[in-house]
Write a structure and sequence with these properties.
The protein is of the alpha+beta class. The protein is built from five helices and eleven strands.
Length: 265
């Protein structure tokens, strides 16, 4: 091979190496920026939830009959509205374990664009619809009008549930299923907590961030399937197979795919 040919080959190798290194740096930068969004939102939530707890304590001193769930829903709605101005691709699940009037419960708010299944006790699972698409963008966190909050309150009520707690533990796990994937997160008594979820994209794993770290989920299709093929397990709260329509089937039309609620008429 002559020297000119060797130079061409060497130049091609160097060019390929440069392109490869640039692509690595670009992907790393994208990943870092993406992770930064999770961290920024999580840190903002820590600050705002601390303010919420202080305000809630003061309000309860004035009015012991205060509706804690309504107040937490409004706080969560404000935060989702504000966070959409940072990145509207994220969705949220909110948890708040509180004791009030001799009752201990955990409030759950589903600010995704799809339903979730959630439980602390295996025998008490609840399906909660999502309301992300109905929550409009805010400006700043505190700059939301009373009229806006009145409208938002009606929306948030539809995507919020409570679970009665039998545990006396100050720290325990809550389990939730999103798009047939099961996740488990730690809950601390008396502390509002947020789960931040990226959009689900074909061929990509959804990112789930809570307790200042990313969570790995596990496929739970087999666990969900039992509610579709055997409606007697929980026909109303999970999958109302008597209605036989898509809207009343479980996560991502699983019942339809498995030949359950929709197809077996």
């Amino acid at each position: 091979m002559n020297k000119r040919g060797q130079i061409y080959i060497l130049a091609a190798l160097i060019f390929s190496l440069v392109i490869y290194l640039l692509s690595i740096n670009l992907n790393t930068a994208k990943g870092t920026v993406f992770s930064d969004f999770f961290i920024e939102i999580s840190n903002n939530y820590d600050k705002e939830s601390a303010k919420f707890l202080t305000s809630l304590s003061q309000e309860l001193l004035k009015n012991s009959e205060l509706d804690v769930q309504k107040n937490f829903n409004e706080f969560s709605g404000k935060f989702t509205s504000y966070s959409k101005t940072i990145n509207s691709a994220f969705g949220f699940i909110y948890f708040f374990d509180y004791s009030h009037r001799d009752n201990r419960r955990v409030i759950i708010g589903n600010h995704l664009d799809q339903p979730i299944l959630v439980w602390v006790d295996e025998n008490n699972k609840k399906k909660i619809d999502g309301c992300k698409g109905e929550i409009h963008l805010g400006t700043t966190f505190g700059d939301l009008s009373e009229d806006f909050m009145g409208i938002l309150g009606d929306i948030l009520e539809k995507c919020s549930e409570t679970l009665d707690l039998t545990t006396d533990d100050n720290v325990y796990n809550v389990t939730y299923v999103v798009s047939n994937i099961k996740y488990t997160s730690g809950i601390i008594k008396g502390v509002p907590q947020i789960v931040i979820l990226s959009e689900e994209k074909k061929g990509e794993e959804r990112k789930v961030y809570t307790n200042h770290k990313f969570e790995k989920g596990e496929n739970w299709v087999d666990g969900l399937r039992q509610y579709c093929v055997d409606p007697s397990l929980s026909p109303k709260t999970i999958c109302d197979c008597n209605l036989r329509d898509e809207e009343n089937c479980l996560m991502n039309d699983l019942c339809k795919l498995e030949g359950g609620c929709v197809d077996n008429e």
